[in-house]
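A note from the maintainers: we've had questions about how concatenated examples are separated. There is no special marker in the raw files; a new sequence line simply starts the next protein. For clarity in this README we add a label.
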Amino acid sequence: MPHIIDDKEAGRFKVARATFTSQEVFEQERDKIFQNCWLYLGHESELNESGEFVSRTVAGQNLLFVKGRDGVIRALFNVCPHRGATVCREKKGKAKSFQCMYHGWVFKNTGEIAHLSGEQAYADNFKEEGNCNLRHVPRFDSYAGFYFVSFNEDIEPLPDYLAGAKEYLDIVANQSTAGMEIIGGTQEYSIAANWKLLVENSVDGYHAESTHATYLDYLMNTNGSLTATRLAGKGYDLGNGHAVIEYSAPWGRPVAQWIPMWGEDGKKEIDGVYAELVERLGEEKAKQMAGLNRNMIIFPNLVINDIMAITVRTFYPTAPDEMMVNGFALGVKDESDWRREYRLSNFLEFIGPGGFATPDDVEALENCQRGFQSAANVPWNDISKGITAKTPSFDDELQMRAFWREWNRRITESEGE
């Protein structure tokens, strides 16, 4: 049985529900996708000073994202080369060195061994061979302030991998000359559903009207929270499994779409922000940056939603029917207090795990996962919406088909060898 049916002539695109439940597929994904793609690690704004670090789990592996005393940002395996214990057990902080709690080996924040307990008992050249240092992740690179790692030494360069997604990362990164920053901490939660359901959901313009009806009603009944702008837009295949939907919407955007709720003082400020964008980037790019929303997936598991606020989200499967999710708020560094307050309010109100949207989405995804128990008798998901359209709408499903074609290529390319 194939994983997908991709029949453009007949206008049909189907995905086997077994791909959401199979232990064999889960193990294939771990080897063929998460060991061989560029994966998001962190943002440059999280490491402003030498010694600052963030410990993060990427595809099940503990990593240190750290700015060394030499000012160089590195990605290190957070694993002691001695016996394998996790060296740094703090989530984030600032340190000149890291000490393993098991046998006391100490490492500089550049990864080099600084102190080897009981050194006199080792061979004279033991440290000189480099086997006492924290190991670097094989590939590490950044684009527009976003840092990525890959465990495949031979992977293509990051700019080639990102393909058309670079244009949309630039739109996010250039919203202010002061730069962008991760605001506050991390939203961490689990969902009892397959990780690919969240990929689909994150770029699904089709579900909002029904799944998020409560939130839309809330906005419509909140004085001044909406304009007359109608929902309209397109979906784009960005290559290599990346995709985006880009669309207009009636809600406010700190960069830079005003709504009556923000008052005349707010209008003056937003008008000023927009004028700066026009002067720096030109009318067309400023209009796109300020007036259009974007939901983007960078294959396999980085989501950037630039809507009312900007959300950066990654997620990893821990089992075929369970995933761990990390979410971050991204904002411009020099925005005013009220713009920052609105941005964070929306990040919590709509995107947060206790907000209007995420609980609705979690319920929908877990409901699908329960439905997949009938996969033997009802075996296919349908993702055909808009497949025959010359210009797919933002609420069609082109972006999901782009993901699934790349997923299927990677999973099946070595089958039968």
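[label: protein 2]
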Amino acid sequence: MPQKVLIVDTSILCVYLQVPGKTTCGPKDDNWDYRRVDQKFLDEEKAGTLFVLPMATLIECGNHVAQVKTGNCYDFAMALSTVIEKAANEKSPWAAFTDQSSLWSSEQLLKLVKDWPEHCSSLSIGDFTIKDVADYYAKMGSSVELLTGDQGLKAYEPAKPVLKPRRRK
């Protein structure tokens, strides 16, 4: 699977769905709004990038949707459900959820509870699992981009694979 993988974080998905109170994210010099996120998604889909929706992203985004106080949360819930449905059905450009199933095994959960407390001051447990998803795809040889407005999480983006120059025969 050596292709580019885009890991979609909660902040970006909320902006994309235009969840009230979550319509922008990121610092002033790297601010994300709907127009920028939509264009990024269009460009990456055109480039053949695989989009990954971590379990933490869908849960956290769902929590923000449920907290919508202005208007009806139903439309936002349906928009989120559409994205989840695409991932569940592995509809391009979304990766199948089953690709991440090994990250939720008993062995991995025990690794999570052992490793996360050391990082709790810099990463929430949700962001820590998003980092694990990024690491998972990087270990498979993919170039991984953590698409997030959270600079703390962005700092954990895996290094890009080093391209080996071709040698002449």
